[in-house]
C-alpha cells in the first residue's frame, strides 16, 4: 500500500504538468513527428523537380520540347525516346570530354586524399621543428580565392609547358584542395587516443605501419567525406577547366558550354549531356553516403 501510494504521489505532479499545457502544445507534440516527415518529403520532392525535369527533357525530341513542357510526358508517355542520348554518344567531342573529366577528377581526388592524409597525420602526431607554424601556414591558404591564382599559375604553366594539359588541371585542383584536406584530417586524427598509438609503437610498429594499420582505418569516415567533397568539386568545376584546358583536353562542363556557344540553345544536346554529367557524381555520393554521414557526425561529436 505504501509503494502504491508513493507511486500515485509521484504520478500526480506529472499529470498536473500535462494538464497545465495548452491543447495546442499537445497537438503539436503528437503531430510533430509526422508533420516533420511530411515537410521533409515535400522539400525533397521540390528539390528533385529540376532533376526530374532535366531527365524527362533529355528523353524527348527537340520538336516536343519546343512545343510543350516536360510535364506533358505524364499524359503522353509516347514522347519518351533515347534518340538524344544516341546522338550525344556519337558526338566525339562529348565522349572525349567525358573521358577527360574522369582523367582529371580521379587523380586529383586520389592525390588530395593520399597527400592530405599523410600531412594530417604528420601535423597531428609527429614532432618536427616549426610544426605549428607550418600548420598555420597551410590553414592560411584556405582564404586564398581560386580567382586570384588563375593568371599567375597560367603564366607559370605556360613557361613550363603544362598549360592546356590535363596534368596542369590536376596539379591546380590538387594544390587548392590540399589546405582543406590537411586541416580536416589533422583535426580528425588528433582526436585518436594517444594510448592506442603508443600501444602500437610498443608492439614494434613504425610510423608508416602505424599510419596504414591504425590511423587510416579509424579515419575512414573523414577520408571518405573528404574524397566525396573533392570529387564533386573537381567534377563540377568549369572555371579552372575553362582557363587551363584547350581543345582536346576539355572536361564535360566546358564541352557543354562550347556546344551552347556554337549551336545556341541546343537543348537536345545540352539536356542529355547535363544529365550524364550530373548522374555520375550523384552515384558516387549515394555509394559513399554512409561513410559521408559517419564522417560528418564524428566531426560534430568530437
Shape: globular
Overall structural class, as computed from helix and strand content, comes to mainly alpha
End-to-end C-alpha gap? 49 Å
Elements, N to C (H/E):
HHHHHHHHHHHHHHH
Outline the low-pLDDT stretches.
296-302
**β-sheet strand percentage:** under 5%
Contiguous helical run count: 15
| Gyration radius, rounded | 27 Å
Q: How would you portray this structure in words?
A:
By secondary structure, the chain is an all-alpha fold. The chain is built from 15 helices and no strands. Helix 6 (131-140) crosses helix 8. The chain is globular, with a radius of gyration of 27 Å.
What are its keywords?
single chain, 302 residues, mainly alpha, 15 helices, 79% helix, disordered C terminus
Amino acid at each position: 500500500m505504501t509503494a502504491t501510494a508513493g507511486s500515485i504521489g509521484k504520478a500526480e505532479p506529472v499529470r498536473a504538468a500535462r494538464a497545465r499545457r495548452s491543447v495546442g502544445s499537445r497537438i503539436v507534440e503528437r503531430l510533430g513527428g509526422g508533420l516533420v516527415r511530411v515537410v521533409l518529403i515535400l522539400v525533397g520532392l521540390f528539390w528533385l523537380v529540376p532533376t526530374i525535369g532535366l531527365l524527362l527533357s533529355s528523353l524527348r525530341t527537340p520538336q516536343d520540347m519546343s512545343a510543350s513542357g516536360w510535364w506533358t510526358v505524364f499524359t503522353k508517355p509516347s514522347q519518351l525516346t533515347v534518340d538524344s542520348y544516341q546522338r550525344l554518344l556519337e558526338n566525339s567531342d562529348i565522349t572525349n570530354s567525358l573521358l577527360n573529366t574522369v582523367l582529371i577528377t580521379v587523380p586529383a581526388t586520389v592525390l588530395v586524399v593520399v597527400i592530405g592524409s599523410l600531412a594530417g597525420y604528420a601535423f597531428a602526431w609527429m614532432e618536427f621543428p616549426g610544426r605549428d607554424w607550418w600548420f598555420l601556414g597551410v590553414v592560411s591558404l584556405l582564404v586564398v580565392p581560386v580567382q586570384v591564382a588563375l593568371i599567375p599559375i597560367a603564366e607559370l604553366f605556360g613557361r613550363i609547358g603544362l598549360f592546356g594539359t590535363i596534368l596542369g588541371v590536376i596539379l591546380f585542383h590538387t594544390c587548392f584542395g590540399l589546405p582543406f584536406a590537411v586541416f580536416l584530417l589533422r583535426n580528425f586524427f588528433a582526436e585518436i587516443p594517444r594510448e592506442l598509438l603508443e600501444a602500437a609503437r610498443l608492439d614494434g610498429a613504425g610510423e608508416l605501419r602505424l599510419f596504414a594499420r591504425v590511423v587510416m582505418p579509424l579515419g575512414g569516415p573523414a577520408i571518405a567525406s573528404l574524397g566525396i567533397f573533392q570529387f564533386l568539386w573537381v567534377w563540377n568545376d568549369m572555371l579552372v577547366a575553362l582557363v587551363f584546358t584547350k581543345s582536346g583536353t576539355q572536361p564535360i562542363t566546358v564541352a557543354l558550354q562550347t556546344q551552347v556557344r556554337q549551336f545556341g540553345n541546343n537543348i537536345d544536346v545540352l539536356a542529355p549531356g547535363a544529365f550524364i554529367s550530373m548522374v555520375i557524381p550523384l552515384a558516387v555520393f549515394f555509394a559513399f553516403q554512409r561513410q559521408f554521414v559517419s564522417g560528418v557526425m564524428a566531426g560534430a561529436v568530437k
